[in-house]
Amino acid sequence: MEKLNKDQIIKLLPHREPMLLIDELYDIKKLKSATATVLVKKNSFFVQGHFPNQPVMPGVLIVESFGQAAAALTACGIDKSKYENKLVFLMGVEKARFRNPVVPDCKLILKIEAIRSHGRVWKYKGEAFVNEMKMADAIWSASIVDRK
User: Fold this and answer.
1) For 31, left (φ over 0), alpha (ψ -120 to 50), or beta?
2) How far from each other are the two terminal CA atoms of the chain, in whole angstroms?
3) In the chain, where are the structural domains located?
4) In principle, which of 42, 43, 72, 138 could form an S-S bond with 96, CB 3.0–4.6 Å?
5) How far apart are CA 40 and CA 117, in angstroms?
C-alpha cells in the first residue's frame, strides 16, 4: 500500500471531523515511515479563535496531526487482527519544537518515522514542512490499547 486517501484513513482511525486532521498518507514504508498531508484551510475549526485577524494552527494540533499520521502508518502495517477493536493513544511527547507559524491556506507536509516498537508501545519522530520550510518537529510515543 503506497497511498491512503481520507476515506481509507477513516477506516483505520477512530477520528472524525472536525478532529480528523490528516487528509492523506503516502510514501508508506510498512511500519517504518510515511508522509502525510494536512490541508490547513481558512475555515478549519481552529482558525476562528486562534487568533482572530492573524490565524495560526495551534502547536498542539500539529502534534495531534503527527500522532494521527503515526497511528495510520501503524494501523495499515500491522496484522488487522492485532488492530481490530484497538485504539492508539498518545503516551508522551519528549520533544516538540515549533519553528514557524502554520497559517491557513497551506499544505502542511508531515514526514514521520517509527523509531522503535516494544510490544504495544511505539516511538516516533516527525518533521512538518510548508513549501519545504521546516515548521515543527517532535518525538513522541504512543500505545495500542483495547477499545472499551
Assistant:
1) left
2) 29
3) 3-146
4) 138
5) 30
Catalytic residue positions? 50
Query: Rounded CA gap, 38 and 107, in Å?
Result: 6
* Cα–Cα distance list, 40 to 36, 102, 106, 145 (Å): 13, 8, 5, 30
User: Model pTM greater than 0.70?
Assistant: yes
Instruction: Decide if 61 contacts 118 (C-beta within 8 A).
Output: no
Rounded CA separation 23/144 (Å) = 22
Pick the CATH number of 3-146 from 3.30.930.10, 3.10.129.10, 3.40.50.300, 3.90.1070.20: 3.10.129.10
Of the candidates 67, 133, 124, the one whose C-alpha atom is nearest the C-alpha of residue 103 is 133
Q: Could you report the per-residue pLDDT of 15-25, keeping only the tens digit for each? A: 999 999 999 99
Name the helix (H) or strand (E) containing 92: strand 86-98
**Segment 91-127, tens digit of pLDDT:** 999 999 999 999 999 999 999 999 999 988 999 999 9
**Lookup: cell for 55:** 490565524
